[in-house]
Write a structure and sequence with these properties.
With 378 residues, this protein is of the alpha/beta class. It contains 13 helices and 13 strands. It is 39% helix and 20% strand. Strands 4, 6, 7, 8, 9, 10, 11, 12 and 13 form a 9-stranded mixed beta sheet that branches. Strands 3-2-1-5 form a 4-stranded antiparallel beta sheet, with helices on both faces. Strand 9, helix 9 and strand 10 form a beta-alpha-beta unit. The longest helix has 21 residues. It binds calcium ion. Calcium ion binds next to loops.
Length: 378
């Protein structure tokens, strides 16, 4: 299974209705897919979290280290790439680019052996995963409590048993939004809040206490990822479990977070933190540290499929007759190529999503969609 070529596919779609996280504005959806092709024609697919053109540039820079190598040597190739880029690449784009390559290699490995990636990763503890709807962003106009109430009630009506909304804009405005959403979805639907590190610790502690009666499962990225002391203050001074992890990379960053017990729930992104190879290590470390793990997911169906393979093999922690399952983060915001890149879309039914059972990631990429949504500069 010698690697013959590596392609990146950049996707772009301008949004009719832009939306905002705490610090960025989404005028368009973009993606960087990675396609690794072997000499026998087998192709594996991955995806890189983060800005698409810089990710593609780094994937290209890693290409010469991969051509002619055995695609099945996932561990050896991961370390080869990481070692070469370590001095300037312990976090961020070097690792997100490596993640896309690693996921593609696992897809190839599964196709080579004719089994889903979760079989090669040790076997599935579950074949269906509960999904939570990610949405609830601030829009550029409109009355936020009312449009969020309508949007999130729609997710509940569609079958989702949990929804996550965005905060981190303005503390008092956010408190009103949270209360409106809880009222709209009722008490039977789980609710999570995500500040995208838009607060400082003082604001986060005040908000967490102000919405303590709203039955919130977790408070995600309250402060910037560098501020682990802030995370610990927030954990100790307000009652909502604290989550984070989409901007921490590899076993080494995660080790610091775990040793310092900075979060209750760790959220590595398979396509960002180092691929499936690295996510497995982080999952074992989290289990050893007694820290919950719910992966972050933001991307196309390729990233969703990779996350589902990972979710399948996460051990039940703690083991018991009815273990608490992990959640799939399922972005519901406008992105026409999220499912279009797959020949068979990944969908939820009654709030549950099936783990793909085909070889590798269990998906087939629709090349027509790659053409249709090809980025202008690509
Ligand atoms: Ca997030």
């Amino acid at each position: 299974m010698r690697i013959a070529e590596i392609h990146t596919h950049l996707l772009h779609h301008d949004l009719d209705a832009p939306f905002e996280s705490s610090f960025s504005r989404f005028d368009a959806r973009t993606a960087c897919l990675v396609e690794v092709v072997c000499e026998d024609g087998t192709a594996g697919w991955g995806e890189c979290l983060g800005p698409s053109a810089p990710n593609a540039a780094i994937v290209k820079a890693m290409r010469s280290l991969l051509i002619g190598e055995n695609a099945l040597d996932t561990e050896r190739l991961w370390l080869t790439l990481y070692h070469q880029f370590r001095d300037q690449g312990q976090m961020g784009l070097a690792v997100t680019a490596l993640s896309g390559i690693d996921v593609a290699l696992w897809d190839i490995k599964g196709k080579h052996f004719g089994v889903p990636a979760h079989v090669l990763m040790g076997g599935a503890f579950r074949k269906r995963v509960p999904a939570y709807a990610t949405g609830g962003f601030r829009r550029v106009s409109g009355d936020r409590p009312s449009y969020l109430a309508e949007e999130t009630a729609g997710y509940a009506a569609a079958g989702f048993r949990a929804v996550k909304i965005k905060i981190g804009y303005d503390k008092d405005e956010d408190i009103a939004a949270i209360r409106a959403v809880r009222e709209a979805i009722g008490r039977d639907v789980r609710l999570m809040i995500d500040a995208n590190h838009g607060y400082d610790a003082v604001e986060a502690i005040a908000l967490g206490n102000a919405v303590a009666d709203q039955d919130i499962d977790w408070f995600e990225e309250p402060v910037v990822p560098e501020d682990l002391a802030g995370y610990r203050d927030i954990r100790s001074r307000q009652p909502i479990p604290v989550a984070g992890g989409e901007t921490w990379y590899t076993r080494w960053s995660m080790r610091t977070v775990m040793e310092s017990r900075s979060v209750d729930i760790l959220q590595p992104d398979v396509c960002g933190t180092g691929g499936l190879s690295e996510s497995l290590k982080i999952a074992d470390m989290a289990a050893a540290f007694g820290i919950r793990l719910v992966p972050h997911v933001w991307g196309t169906g390729v990233a969703v499929a990779a996350a589902l393979q990972f979710l399948a093999v996460l051990p039940p922690v703690p083991p018991r007759h009815e273990p608490r399952g992990p959640w799939l983060e399922f972005d519901q915001t406008d992105n026409p190529f999220r499912q279009a890149v797959l020949t068979v879309p990944i969908t939820q039914s009654d709030g549950m999503v099936a783990v793909p059972e085909g070889p590798g990631l269990g998906i087939t990429v629709n090349r027509d969609a790659l053409d249709r949504f090809k980025a202008p500069q690509a």
